[in-house]
Amino acid sequence: MIFEKNTAKKTAELLLQIKAIKLSLENPFTWASGWKSPIYCDNRVTLSHVQIRTYIREYFSKIIDKKYGKPDVIAGVATGAIAIGVLVAQELGVPFVYVRPEPKKHGRQNQIEGQIDKNQTVVVVEDLISTGKSSLNAVKALQEQDIKVKGMVAIFSYGFEFAVQNFKDANVELTTLSDYNHLLQQAIETNYIAESELETLQGWRKNPSEWRQ
């Protein structure tokens, strides 16, 4: 769920402004999964804009403080959420770790990088939620080390129904700064897209794996 409507609107405005989110119906993007998509989100771009990364850091910290209280540790999901996770940990004055998709195949073979102990509490920071698979994989890795995951915060979510179900099944509370609905609303209001394109963009989200232009 989103943190609050005003924040969702402002975040969508900022992401569109710096082209962290791009919409293209005529020339769809191809995701790593092979899906064809009229939208592409690269929240790493926010790191290059001081005011926007500050905004994200501050609002993530507000969400965490309001919903969970100060955790023992902040965990970022590699690689997209490492930098913003560090900023949030610094703002809250707590340690930071990050979670790899899988254990390293050399050295100490860590999946969790950094110092965190059993029974400590953690809030996971993510940049983008699509299917939720990689995000929940990080949660599982932490829980397997007897670490208490309070919840997850993310910049943006596509809001796929199956992703919502994945988080529900895993019993993980997710709060995002913005989502697909607020993005489309903002794109319409700013003439980034035309009303005639709205139906196509809404249809894609209902069945992204089968969507074709």
SSE topology sketch:
Layout: H1 5-17, E1 21-23, E2 29-30, E3 36-37, E4 39-41, H2 50-67, E5 73-77, H3 82-92, E6 96-99, E7 112-113, E8 121-129, H4 133-143, E9 148-157, H5 161-170, E10 174-179, H6 180-189, H7 195-206
Parallel strand pairs: 5-6, 5-8, 8-9, 9-10
Antiparallel strand pairs: 1-4, 2-3, 6-7
Descriptive overview:
Helix 1 crosses helix 6 and helix 2 packs across helix 3. This protein has helices spanning 5-17, 50-67, 82-92, 133-143, 161-170, 180-189, 195-206; strands at 21-23, 29-30, 36-37, 39-41, 73-77, 96-99, 112-113, 121-129, 148-157, 174-179. It is of the alpha/beta class and 213 residues long. The strands form 3 sheets. Strands 7-6-5-8-9-10 form a 6-stranded mixed beta sheet, with helices on both faces. The chain has a two-stranded antiparallel sheet with strand order 1-4. The chain has a two-stranded antiparallel ribbon with strand order 2-3. It has a single domain, classed as Rossmann fold. It is 40% helix and 22% strand. Helix 3 links the parallel strand 5 and strand 6. The chain contains 7 helices and 10 strands.
